Structures are given as C-alpha cells and as structure tokens.
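3.2 Worked example (two chains)
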Amino acid sequence: MSTDKSQSAGFRKLPLSHSTADSQASALRLVLTLFPDWETADGKVEFIRFKEGITNTLLKAVKRRPGYSEEDIDKEAVLIRAYGKGTDVLIDRERAAFVVAEFIRGQVCDSGDLTEERIWRGVARRLAEWHALLPIVSTPITASDDETDYLLMPFEKQLSRSRPSAKAINSITPSKPTPNVWTVIQKWIFALPTSNEDESQRKGSLQKQLERTVADLGDMPSLGKDGLVFAHCDLLSGNVIVHPHDTESTPPIATISFIDYEYATPAPAAFDLANHFAEWGGFECNYNALPTRSVRRAFIEDYLRYYTSHIPLPSDVDEHTYVDRLFEEVDAYRGVPGLYWGIWALIQATISQIDFDYATYAEVRLQEYWDWRAEREGTGQQGKEKPLRERRWAEQ
C-alpha cells in the first residue's frame, strides 16, 4: 500500500511504510490494520515467504483459525508485496510501496505450459477481460518553467540532467493518458547510465529508436480509449496461475488468473499480446517455442470473442475483419517487447543483486528489436537467412 492516504484507481491507501530491516513486523502492522479481527480472534497470524530480491519481497499472510482446513485458511489468506532497493527506477513506487492482494490457489505455469492449448485459450479469455473491464486512470502533469526548459534542451544536454521531470518523461506521447507503456520506456531510457562514451552513445541511440517506434506505432487505431487498454505488460509464465478444478477430468479450457501487477500500465492491446507471445520462449528465449501464425490467430479469435462480450465492436466492423486487423497489429508490435525488456535489463544489470546475467539478456532482447526493425524496413542482408525469431514468427 502507498504511504498516501488518498484514494486512487479504486485502491485503498494507508499511511504505512515497509522496513527492509524487519519486513515481517511491517507486514504484521499492515495486516492488522486491514483485518483488525485477526489480532483478537483465536489462531495465530503466520507469514510464508515466497521470494525476495531486488524487485520485491513477497509474503503470504494467513490466519490459522482453530478447526479450519488448509483450503479454508487459504480462502482468507492475502499476499503482501513490498518493493525494494532501486525499484523506483523501474516501477512507480508513488503508486505502491506495499501491495496487498487476495491469495489465489492454483498452479504457477512454466514457459512450456503456455504452449498447451487449454492454457493459452484460458489466458486469451482472461486477458480479454482485463483489457475490456479494467479502467485507465490518467495522472495530470503540470509543467514548471524548469521542466519546460528541459524539454527545449538538445538531447545531448538532457543526458546530463540526473532526474528528468515527469513532464519530460510524458512528452514522448503528449496527446495520450499518462503513464503509459511509452512513457515507462522513456523513463527507463533517462535512467540508463552514461559513465562512458559507449554508454552515452547507446542511450542516445535507444532514445532515437523509441521516438521512431512511437512515430510508427503510437497512433495506430486499436482497442480501448485513445488506442490504450490497461495492460499487464509482464505476462511471463510465472505470472499465470491455473486454477484447480473439482471434476475428475481436466476441463478443455483452463480457468486462469494473473499475478504481479507492478509493470501494469496503459498500453496498446497489441503490445500486451505480442509481449505475452514472446514469453512463450521463457528467459532462455527459446524462439522455437513461440506461437506460429495459426496459433496466434486462434488466440486472437478467442481474445476478441471475449473482449466483445464486454465491449461490442463498432456496428460497421465485423468480428472477422477485426481479427485480421488485430492480428496485423500484433505482428507489427512483435519487436517492441525486445526494446522494452532490453532497456529494462540494461538497468537491472546496474542495480540488481540477483544472480542472473542481465547484460547478456539485454543484448539478446535488444537484438530481437533490431531484427524486427531490419525486417520491417527491408534492411536485412541480401541472401542471408532471416534470424530464427523472425522465421518462427512467419511460420504458419
């Protein structure tokens, strides 16, 4: 929960903070504030630590009431996520220092699970509900004279400014609600290190690529108001939960929930879809696991069927035509997740304490962007075989 007492986007905010020195005591104060009866009712409060790292600490809080089964206990359990060192660069900690969410019983997916038809159809339907039903809340920005001066500076001079204003960040898409996926990438680019000439040149190059990509795709007509939906933006396998089922036989389509919303922000639906498809390859970037054209189309058909059950399409557009249109949009966005996560990984390489080779991962993801850009603009080397990811994406 945020330390702000105000209400925003339907979330309750409390004047509490998290202490990394004693995260359990901080979490207990929060739980007892939200559920006062947990302090007086029989049964102790327990915390189960799921994971901890540079991005967050995740705890499950349970009230072990006498006579309750584990299933009963889980029904009122909550998850508490506290954001950690350095994460204000990557996520908006003004929105949340603590986040409390309902605990969901189920099985966490791995990347191989995403390729199972019963699971990807469930993901398509759940994601359609997200995009159709969750509201977009814009944060108005008022520019000071200093911020306006920053916008008028040449980019080379902007690099020397250690903390750009929100107005400068949001200027990448001045006509759209903020924050959004483009302003997030802009914020990350501003945060890239420039300790030597190579880093400064890379930062300038990525800034130009962001501007090109926004010019190419940013105003593409799409679902949602202003072409934006409230997107998850991090639908990797570990954030997809398959609900348990009561029947003896496995249902043909899984019931799905999503977790971990710290990167959620308004974005084009095509970005969220392309980003999820990229996650079929996992952190290993196994491009042979990516969905083919026929699978992507079937996914999008299910997605649109459920999206339009909540928000009907314009009367002059039939569903088949819109499937074609969204399929092409997703195809156009296929390289953007590489830019997004490549820049993210460059920052993680400088701040993260997790044992993961973020620097190499950044190069792999950014290469996806460069390969897409070359294919889009026809600048690939003549007579040379296309990169594996581009070949896989084109498979029927």
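3.2.1 Second chain
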Amino acid sequence: MSIPNEALQKLVQEIETQAIMAQREINVVKTTISGKQRDARLLELTSSELKTLPKDTKVYEGVGRMFVFKPTTEVEKRLSSETTELKSDVSNLNKKLHYLETTHKNSREHIDQIFRSSGRS
C-alpha cells in the first residue's frame, strides 16, 4: 500500500515544522539555562563573600534608588532560597531540554524513514 505523493508531502511538511519548532525551543531553553546558572553562581559568590564578613557587619540591600539595612542572617536566607529556586528551575529546564532534543531527533528520524520508504516504492 502506497501513500499518495500529496499526503506524503503534507506529512513531511508537518514533521519538518515540528522539528523546526523543537529546534527553536531548544535554543531558547539553552539560553535560559545558561542565564539561570549564571545568576545562581552570582548568588553563591555573594553568599560566600557574606559569610567571610564579621557577624556584626551592617549589610544593606538595594531597593529601587535607596539602600535598606537587613540583618546578615536574613540576607543569607534570601540568597539561599533564591539559589535553591534557580537550581530547581535549571533542573526542570534540563528535563524540558531532554524532551525537546528527543522530539527533534524523532522528527528527523521520521523524515528520514519516510524518504527511505518512498525511495523504495
């Protein structure tokens, strides 16, 4: 049983569109992952610098155009929670990246399979 050329062409076009969309999403996810990893590293560096300061050091955080005094422990908690949240985001994005890469690979394999099977007919 052979698939008509028009249907085959439409099928290839749909799979190709899916592969292109997956590739675009892969690029977006990779960019997002690198940004979040950079932010997490910056938070870790800030936290390590904060831990080297004496306990009685006054710490200020920027709020808009001004700086507000915050206790060192409160700043450390905030940095820790933000770092944990960013690492969780990176983990979820890595799962999404794996899914998208698999989708892209499968789309390419399906296109190749269609061309191979149509070449035999």
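3.3 Remarks
The two ends are 10 Å apart (CA to CA).
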